[in-house]
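Incident log, support desk, overnight shift.

02:14 A customer reports that sequence design results differ from what the structure should imply. Their input is reproduced verbatim below. On-call engineer (initials T.W.) acknowledged and began investigating.
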């Protein structure tokens, strides 16, 4: 199940997954979106996404699961931004 949470945030609800499966799915979604490019008003635009996961059980509260997923997404976003910055600096230093 996929739903728009607001703005540019979406949620994907998957069931019967291990944590490793969920992380692999999140990585696959990030990779697919990272490859997405399009042209807008004559300029090439590159898309990107950061995915956070939260495993939930039958007794978990939906709001708590959403908060956990949101925290995980922001941690992932920060890590990706740092990785991208480090890769950019590394490339610039080599030139």
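02:41 Re-run completed on a clean worker. Output:
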């Amino acid at each position: 199940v996929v739903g728009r949470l607001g703005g540019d945030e979406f949620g994907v609800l998957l069931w019967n997954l291990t944590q490793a499966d969920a992380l692999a799915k999140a990585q696959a979604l990030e990779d697919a979106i990272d490859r997405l490019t399009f042209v807008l008003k004559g300029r090439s635009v590159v898309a990107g996404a950061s995915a956070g996961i939260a495993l939930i059980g039958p007794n978990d509260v939906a709001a708590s699961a959403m908060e956990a997923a949101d925290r995980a997404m922001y941690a992932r976003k920060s890590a990706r931004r740092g990785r991208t910055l480090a890769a950019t600096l590394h490339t610039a230093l080599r030139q």
